[in-house]
Amino acid sequence: MMRPAPLLAALALLAACAPTGTQPETRSPAAILRLDRMKDMDARRDWTALAATDPGACSGPNDAVCGESQALRARGCRMLAEAATSAATKRPQLDCAVEAGRAALAASAATPPAERDAWREALAWSLFQRRQIQPRAALCPDNAALRQEADALGGALPDARFLAASARLSDVVEGCGAPAAACTNLSEARRLLTPAPAGNAPWTALAAAVASESRSRQCR
Predict the structure, then answer these.
(1) Are 26 and 70 spatial neighbours (Cβ–Cβ below 8 Å)?
(2) Cα angle vertex 45, ends 31, 124, to 5°?
(3) pLDDT tier at 125 (50, 70, 90 boundaries)?
(4) Residues near 1 by Cβ (< 8 Å), separated by ≥ 6?
(5) Which of 55, 122, 154, 179 is at a distance of 20 to 30 A from 113, taking alpha carbons?
(6) Are 162 and 193 in contact (CB under 8 A)?
(7) 175: Cα within 13 Å, side-chain hemisphere
């Protein structure tokens, strides 16, 4: 049966708009309004309200509105964690920062690379801070995730080398990595920490810990 020309044209238009393997970016009025509110919370440094605003699951890798909303929520949670005075109150905020940070990156395919790198660095710092207060059984998974995110940054941001070196040292001293790779990890950590920025006490302390561990294991 012959289809009328207008129907054929409509079918052709639908075919042209069909999904090609990636999810469309969500730009619903509600999502945009929520993002605007979250930006205002961020500007006012209302970390409690920002952390409490859950954008929900993003629709896919190109959902830039949701990704930015998740990145803002991660920032709110991270700031609350930094203000917390005990591990018990810090931990849930860091859990939130890690969860939201991962959701932001998962929806960041359409995000400018510099902004995506900033989100990844923030996630890496959240993992670093959570690793510091983790029980032994959960420490190594966080360290592996920290190493992955820091290595993905490469030399894109100043703190990436510090975080990557810290993960390698923990692989050795916490037994997270293979024992046979200890000297390789320490050698990579020394390389990542060179050159050292002037006047950076945490960097100097980490470099000293790497050097001490290298000597104790007689690594070249």
Answers:
(1) no
(2) 75
(3) very high
(4) none
(5) 55
(6) yes
(7) 3
- How far apart CA 23 and CA 5 sit, in angstroms, is 30
Q: CA Rg, the chain, in Å?
A: 22
pLDDT (tens digit per residue) in 9-49:
443 443 344 344 444 454 689 999 999 999 999 999 999 99
Is there a contact between 217 and 186 (Cβ–Cβ < 8 Å)? yes
Q: Which residues contact 206 (CB under 8 A, 6 or more apart)?
A: 162, 165, 166, 169, 193
The three state secondary structure string of the chain is: CCCCHHHHHHHHHHHHCCCCCCCCCCCCHHHHHHHHHHHHHHHCCCHHHHHHCCCCCCCCCCCHHHHHHHHHHHHHHHHHHHHCCCHHHHHHHHHHHHHHHHHHHHCCCCCCHHHHHHHHHHHHHHHHHHHHHCCHHHHHHHHHHHHHHHHHHCCCCCCHHHHHHHHHHHHHHCCCCCHHHHHHHHHHHHHHCCCCCCCCHHHHHHHHHHHHHHHHCCCC
- Each as own residue / partner, the long-range contacts of residues 129-136 (CB below 8 Å, 24 or more positions apart, any chain) are 129/78, 129/81, 129/82, 129/90, 129/94, 130/91, 130/94, 130/95, 130/98, 131/170, 133/87, 133/90, 133/91, 133/94
